[in-house]
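Researcher: Here's the sequence for the chain we discussed earlier.
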Amino acid sequence: MYAQGNIPTVTNVFQKSQDGYTCFRIPAIVQGKTGALLAFAEARKNSCSDTGDIDLVLKRSEDGGKTWSKMITVWDDRENVCGNPAPIIDQTTGRILLISCWNSGEDHEKEIIDQTSKDTRRVFVLYSDDDGKTWSQPKEITSTVKRPDWTWYATGPCHGIQLQNKQYEGRLVVPANHMVAGTKTYHSHIIYSDDRGETWNLGGIVNEPGGNESSVVELENGDLMLNMRNYNREESKTRSFAISSDGGETWSEMKYLPELVEPVCQGSTLNYNKNGTISNNLLFSNPASNDKREKMTVRLSKDNGKTWPYSYLVHPGPTAYSDLVNLFDGNIGLLYEYGTQNPYEKIGFTIISFEQLQ
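Model: Thanks. This is the structure I predict for it:
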C-alpha cells in the first residue's frame, strides 16, 4: 500500500545546463562522521550521453540537506569518462572513500563489450580526510578487482557499506557488475577491502546472468543481501537478489522480489537505523513501474527484505536513479533523478521520516 500524505519537499542539488555542464546524472550520497552530507554525481560536459567528457563532482551540505555548497570537482580526466560513484565511509577513521570507473571518452559501452574499443573499463579509488572538501589523486585497482576476460565493468552506482558482523567487522563492501568477453549478459559481484581501503579484492560473483547495477545491505543476522537491476525480463519484471553468509565472498542462487517492480533501472537499498546498529528494517528506492522510469518510490520491509508492505511515493512523474542515506536525526535522505519531461533534468534531495513510510 502507498502511505498517505503530501509529496515531500525537494531541494535541487544539481540541474541540467548549470556549472558549465549539459547534464548531471548518477547520484550517490553518504553522511560523514561529522554529519556533513556529500552528494555525488556524474557531470556530463557536452551531452547527457553515457560516454564522452564526464567528471565526478559533489556538493556538500552542513545543515542536513537544506542548503548545498558550490560544486567540488573530485575527478576530471580531460575528455575521458570518470563515473559510477560508489562512496563509502570508514566509521573508525572518518575517511571517505570513493570507488569509481574510468574509460576513454571515445569508447562506448558496446565497443568495450565487443572488444573493439581503444581502451577498456578501469577501476579506481580516491579518498578524502576532510569530509569531502579535498580529494586524493585516483589510484588504479583494476588488476585486483577485475578479471582479464571481463570487458564491461561498473561499480554501484550507489553507496557502499562497512560491515558490523563480528567475523567481518570493518570490511568495506562495494557492489559492482561485469560482462565476460564473448557474452552479452551481465553478472553482479562485489569487491571488498579488509584494510580500510588500502587494498581491494574481488569478492563473490552471482552465478546466474542478468544481474546488473546493484546495491548491497547488511542484514540483522550478519548476512548480506545484493539487490540487483534485472535483465531477465522473461522470468520476472522485478528486482532480483542473492544472499551471502560469508561477508560477500560467495553468493546464493539468484531469486526475485515480486513486490519490487522495476522498468530495468538502478535502485538503492539501505538498512534503516537510528544509532548505527543493524536492524531488521530495510529500505528500497527506485522508479516503481514495470515499463517506465517514473514514480520514484521508497519501500519499507520490517522482516529483512522478505516482504515489502509499505510504500511511499516521492515523485509521481519521470524519475530514474537514486540513493538512500540514514540521517543522524533518524530521518531518511533520498537523492534522486527527476524531472517533468524526462528524468534527467534535476537531481534532488528530500527528507522522509520513518513514520511516513508506515
